[in-house]
Design a protein that fits this description.
The chain has about 180 residues and is an all-alpha fold. It has helices spanning about 5-30, 40-60, 75-115, 125-140, 145-160, 170-175. The two termini are about 30 Å apart.
Length: about 180
């Protein structure tokens, strides 16, 4: 039996897709130039990994179920719920990528400030090591639970309808199943 919430589900899909698009845009803006000597520094490697992960995510197509209901409200509800799971999983992945890219970008800016346009020397060692430790700590805090909690808090602040939003376990199963 139809529950009358398909309009709310459709709005939720639009919200999730907009967040996903915005995150991909922000990921693309997380750039840092590395010299050939710096190419393999962890922060620059993380940035490259994030850009590659965003490209893979962007190229993963949505696979709709064949619709057999012919306008049936229950079939529409099921498809909307499926799209909510898919778009939630994509947004989750994009947000995790964005958080990692932003941490790496902060590291790159800190590194550039420490070096001041110079090549690294032993005098820069302690400051560069501190920046590296900060990057590792930030990356370590970007857990799946943190990402979901961060997204949920933003959704609650925005007053979004969340009744059909999937749990972390559902998102993780969806990602593994794709």
């Amino acid at each position: 039996m139809a529950d009358g919430l398909n309009q709310a589900r459709a709005v939720r899909v639009a919200e999730l897709m907009n967040d996903y698009r915005t995150l991909l845009l922000h990921i693309s803006q997380q750039q840092a130039n590395a010299s050939p000597e710096e190419h393999y520094e962890e922060g620059f490697s993380v940035l490259r990994e994030c850009h590659a992960a965003a490209q893979r995510l962007l190229s993963a197509n949505y696979q709709p179920c064949p619709m057999t209901g012919g306008g049936n409200a229950e079939t529409e509800k099921a498809e909307l719920q499926r799209v909510i799971i898919d778009s939630s999983a994509r947004r989750f992945q994009a947000h995790k990528i964005y958080l990692r890219a932003a941490a790496a970008r902060r590291w790159a800016m800190t590194r550039a400030n420490i070096l001041g346009g110079q090549r690294p020397t032993s005098a820069h060692g302690p400051s560069l090591k501190a920046a590296h430790i900060t990057l590792q700590q930030e990356l370590g805090r970007i857990t799946d639970q943190h990402v979901v909690a961060d997204l949920r808090a933003a959704d609650l602040r925005a007053g979004h309808w969340l009744d059909d939003d999937p749990s972390l376990a559902v998102i993780q199963r969806w990602i593994v199943g794709r």
